[in-house]
Design brief:
The chain is α+β, with helices and mostly antiparallel strands and 118 residues long. It is built from four helices and five strands, in the order E-H-H-E-H-E-E-E-H. The protein has one domain: 2-Layer Sandwich (YaeB-like fold), CATH 3.30.2310.20.
Length: 118
């Protein structure tokens, strides 16, 4: 069985740090941070735990900026989403790299995927 390494990059790292800072004073942000920790523990055991996003729905920004070919979504409390991709770990051939690209609220998720309000 391959090892799993999880990394947060760019927007995901910024969002996670912001949530951690707010968590000390807000139960809402604390719930989201705890959910992220729980979900990453699950991802270490099952990298395909999240919902796969259809290749044709992967936002162009992810394709251009990160060259990804797969995308998964995990639902977090209060309609937040965690978006991640899977790659072979370039540093270790016996390892899978889970790259967390974004941790976003519902409105940001809808904007990213081009969903319209009705």
């Amino acid at each position: 069985m391959k090892k799993v390494r999880i990394v947060l990059i760019d927007n995901a790292a910024d969002s996670y740090h912001w949530l951690q800072e707010k968590a000390s004073e807000s139960k809402v942000e604390m719930a989201i941070v705890e959910a992220i920790r729980n979900k990453t523990d699950i991802l270490k055991r099952d990298v395909h735990y999240g919902q796969p996003i259809s290749k044709k729905l992967i936002p162009d920004t992810y394709r251009k900026n990160y060259g990804i070919t797969n995308l998964f979504r995990l639902e977090l409390p209060l309609f937040w989403r965690l978006l991640y991709t899977l790659k072979n770990d370039p540093d270790n051939s016996n390892s899978i790299l889970v790259i967390i690209l974004d941790i976003v609220d519902h409105a940001s998720h809808n904007k990213l995927f081009g969903y319209q309000k009705k």
